[in-house]
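USER: Fancy drafting a protein?

ASSISTANT:
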Amino acid sequence: MKKVIRLTEQDLARIVRRVIMEQESSDLIGKSVNIYSGPTETQKEFWFQDKIGDVRLAPGKQVEITFEDEKSLSMWYNCTDTRPGFIYTGPNDQRMYNKQLESIIKKTYCTTIRDYDNNEKTVPNADFASTNRSSGNSSVA
């Protein structure tokens, strides 16, 4: 049985973006990352190294990153936050840093738009979550 489905150009573009983003986020899973307590990412600021367990869009349209070994540890990236780094949800809600990972997350999950006053604004560009699991041992940073 054949069915004809009509898609607008906008619908097709949205589907293609979703597929690309799911592939990119699953590429991060299993990659080893260094996390720092300061924005200069010096050896003195080194906090820990772990593999990414999952990357997903969480409630509030924040990107949540969990780790393989530190299962109780999550960090969040908010596309609309102008400060650098990730937010660690722990006792002090402190910030964590990895510039390379932040760049990848921003490129994959965020987009820049212009508001009514023609000012640039960064916002989330997806409304879905990827729970694909893959293994890998390459390093992000």
